[in-house]
User: Fold this.
Amino acid sequence: MSDTYSPTKTLDIQFSLPDVATAATNAITNALAFCARKMQLGDPAAVPGLLRQRNTTALNYFEYGLARELAEHIAALDDQVQAVYLYTPDATAEDVIFGDMKPTLVHLVVRVQRKTNALISLLDSLDCALAQAYAEIIGVPEQEHLMDAHVLDEAEINSRTGLGAMLSWLFNRPLMVWKRSALRA
Assistant:
């Protein structure tokens, strides 16, 4: 009898990620379901009407749910992503007075070890797909953008330059919606 190992069969494992349009549609659908659960609506189909009416509670839950979905998708595609934060930009006094508030955008800060053009391209294409999917699912005219994502590397965060300072603000600090675990499988 021989003590050597000889494999008898190999497994053909395929792993595929959805295209950007499917990912955007899935993210919005899951965010609608999250919003419905949090508002105890029972049916996610009720949420688009609330979003069209600009219901603040629905908008906030939807925004958070969408940010979490997007963060997970982005991080699955780029292992440089360390954390994703959701933030609310301050409107200027002129925006409030003249009613120039932009439609709901998901404002993200994507913390990375190193910036790459591939990540920037991914974020741009995801933004376009989100705007189109949002218009179709919610039933509103298509917006130019739905996601506003800023990519920050460790150097910008450590030196607190530009938006890198945002992560250490005392007031209106961004909310972490996703973080890569320290242990990698």
